[in-house]
Amino acid sequence: MSLSFCIVDDDASARRMLQYIIEESSLGEVTGSAGGGLEGVRQILSEAPDIVLMDLLMPDQDGIEVIESLRAQGCSSRFVMISQIENQDMVGRAYRSGIEFFIRKPINRIEVETVLRKVNERYAMSHYLDEIKSSLRKLEGLRSAPFVPTGRRTVRETIQPILMNMGLIGESGSRDIITIMELLLEHEGGSVDHLPPLKELYRQAAATYNKKPEDIAKEVKAIEQRLRRALTAALSNLASLGLTDYGNPRFEYYAPLYFDFEDVRLKMKQIEEGRETPAGKGKVNIKKFLQVLYIEIKEQLGV
């Protein structure tokens, strides 16, 4: 997914430097830039960029006022503030206005790349979760009334078809995935919006396996290893499916939603070149997988 950027800064050299860093680092495409707040508002509302880099202090209007004006007019872009200001009150105002991060002046390439990669990751996660919700709403609309036992299905019954579609049934880590989802959805009624730290989830799951207190720490490590092996296997299964049939609905739906697509592409390349990494050794984002699965299960159960 290539993101679009707009840069609003009265310093032309800063705009050029930021554009160079964004495009040289393959972070996205700069589709517009402006030298002032009023010009920036017009351009942003016209082009609707994904991400806006906004200078805090500009001659005609400060960046916080610009962001508040844009929000009031329905702008959904994500904002990163650029500033030399160290005043904590100003920083607090900026975050309350809805910015994602600060980039300090003078501009440092490593800081810009690091910050914008984090913003990109947040944007991608939000986009994937929106896609899940949209897809689930469409699926619900297609179901006939007798086929929707929403209040009667268990977490296990809901999750198993998803795991099956990714080739995870039979993997030892599938038990841990089901246990974690049951803990989140049944014990807390699905009221949590964001997952607790992974180690805490592993600890809670380990406690349900009737382990002695002195064995919990060892079981926590074992759960993490089983999950990593299972998710690596799922990634490999989907990548293999994508190689043979890129338009396969299972590949199109699960691969970009549950995994970082760069990891999917890398796995496809490894399989194609015959150098696939052993199970459990690949790069997988366990927290993203569990977060997406959690939202999908909540949607299906109507909680």
Automatic annotation (TrEMBL):
What does the UniProt keyword field contain? Answer: Phosphoprotein
**Domain of life according to the entry:** Bacteria
4-aspartylphosphate is found on 55
- Show where the Response regulatory domain sits: 4-120
The UniProt entry, under Pfam families, shows: Response_reg, YcbB
Matching InterPro entries, A to Z?
A: CheY-like_superfamily (IPR011006), Sig_transdc_resp-reg_receiver (IPR001789), ST_Response_Regulator (IPR052048), YcbB (IPR013972)
For this entry, the protein name equals Transcriptional regulatory protein GlnL
